[in-house]
Write a structure and sequence with these properties.
Radius of gyration: 17 Å
Helix content: 10-25%
Largest sheet: 6 strands, antiparallel
Order of helices and strands: EEHHHHHEEEE
Distance between the termini: 21 Å
Strand content: 25-35%
Number of strands: 6
Shape: elongated
Length: about 150
């Protein structure tokens, strides 16, 4: 796991505006895109038909934007650990944008910083800014503002 191993629920409020960590790189291969398409019943050719997509606007298939969002829980657990959080509950999104597509076989990673940390009964409501980058550089592939509940045991 990356990031600061000394984070606690109570220390998060002191980290507002600061980066907590960066995940590992993850390759987005066609089988993953196909599985997501099947699971969500979004079988648009731009995602699942490499031959047709090669002649399309991106020259190859692209991942669903929501596939990128669905990776955030895994990416965040790589980026940092809160030592006294017994459970993590995805509470929602305040905002999500996809400035550019994730092309098949791109590698992506998440960069996480604290927007807010508000004490709640039994834990903290944590607002994160997430920037998902592509290894090839350029604009981010996703910028999201997430809200997570981190609860003590």
């Amino acid at each position: 796991m990356g990031g600061d191993g000394l984070l606690t629920i109570d220390s998060l409020a002191e980290r507002v505006g600061q980066e907590l960590g960066v995940s590992e790189w993850h390759r987005i291969a066609q089988p993953r895109i196909d599985q997501f398409a099947q699971a969500t019943e979004d079988l648009q050719w731009i995602h699942v038909d490499p031959v047709r997509a090669a002649a399309g606007p991106y020259g190859r298939t692209i991942a669903h934007g929501y596939l990128t969002l669905a990776l955030l829980p895994a990416l965040v657990t790589e980026a940092f650990t809160v030592s006294d959080a017994a459970r993590r509950v995805n509470y929602g999104l305040d905002k999500a944008r996809f400035p550019r597509p994730v092309h098949v076989d791109d590698e992506v990673r998440g960069r996480f910083s604290v927007r807010f940390a508000e004490a709640i009964d039994g834990g903290v409501q944590l607002g994160l800014k997430v920037v998902v980058e592509s290894r090839d550089g350029g604009k981010p592939v996703c910028v999201a503002e997430t809200v997570t509940l981190l609860m003590r045991s």
